Amino acid sequence: MKKLFTVLLAAMMLLAMVACGNNNNEPAPTPEPTPDDTKTLYMATEGTFPPYEYYDGDQLVGIDVEVASAIAEKLGMKLEVVDIAFDSIVSGVQAGKYDMGMAGMTVNEERLQQVNFSDSYSTGIQVVIVKEGGKVQSLDDLAGEDVIIGTQSGTTGFMYASDDYGDDHVKGFAKTTDAVEALKNGQVDCVMLDNEPAKALVAANPDAGLSILDTPYTVEDYAIAINKDNNDLLTQVNAALAELKADGTLQGIIDKYIK
After folding, report:
1. In a domain, 24, yes or no
2. Which residues of the chain are under the pLDDT cut of 50?
3. 162/95 Cα distance (integer angstroms)
4. Among 85, 182, 192, 210, which residue's CB has the most CB atoms within a 10 Å radius?
């Protein structure tokens, strides 16, 4: 009886070894991806630039946010938007803190020295907001000796105003909303900024006597800032933008916000 038990035990051990050997020869199953396995695409922006980026309650929304989300989806990544000061976006992308910057940002020579830019995804128009009865009622009035132009610091509006009229005639603000408040209070004589946020700001202040000059100051293209050392991401973003343009997604997003 004892001998029979020993034989059965040995047979069971042999079968177990064979089974283990067969399992080791099978390929390991591929794990299903989880949210934690998805890479994150970090986008820096400044959330007071409607309709490109602005807050709807606690949520940051707008053209740039939706375009970035569509790009992230094309790249198989999840998007995280970081709201920072506008004049810190380019330097943050350059330093590698963020993968890309989108904030209705215009391509110019100064920025090109710090970062690369994607293909253009939208067109912007620089305009001037004035106050009824104020010193500025036409673009020619901007050259007035005692005219002060309000702009958001770090924007192309700030650069145009400073280059064309001198630093002494320009007052920079952290946000476009601050610049418009300064116009209402008489601290500046006009505000230079992009057309779409200008329309939103004038509409938000119906009793302030504000209007936009009929003549645009200049027309410019918006693009995405990307670190100069990240050519792979630049190529991928441009490819995603091309697909979004081709299938109508990009224009659909823009049309949703700009009527």
Report:
1. no
2. 1-35
3. 26
4. 192
| Distance (Å, whole) CA 160 – CA 197 | 17
Q: What is the pLDDT, as a whole number, of residue 131? A: 97
> Strands, DSSP E only, in the chain?
40-45, 54-56, 59-61, 78-83, 100-101, 116-117, 122-131, 149-152, 170-173, 190-194, 210-212, 218-222, 225-226
* Residue 80: closest CA among 63, 58, 65, 62: 65
Give the pLDDT confidence score for residue 75 in this predicted structure.
Answer: 96
- pLDDT of 37 reads 61
Of 163, 170, 155, the closest CA to residue 89 belongs to: 155
**Could you list the residue range(s) of the whole structural domain that residue 60 is in?**
41-121+223-257
**Shared domain check, 184 and 144:** yes
Question: Which residues fall within 8 angstroms of residue 197, CB to CB, at 6 or more apart?
Answer: 48, 49, 50, 51, 52, 104, 176
If asked whether residues 47 and 73 sit together in one domain, one would say yes
In the prediction, which pLDDT does 38 show? 75
Q: What is the pTM of this model?
A: 0.74
178 to each of 43, 140, 150, how far by Cα in Å?
24, 24, 9
CA-based Rg of the chain, rounded to a whole angstrom?
Answer: 28
Nearest to 103 by CA among 56, 153, 163: 153
Distance CA 215, CA 169 (A): 20
For residue 77, list its beta bridge partners. Answer: none
DSSP SS3 for 41: strand
Residues 142 and 211 in one domain: yes
What is the structure's pLDDT at 21? 44
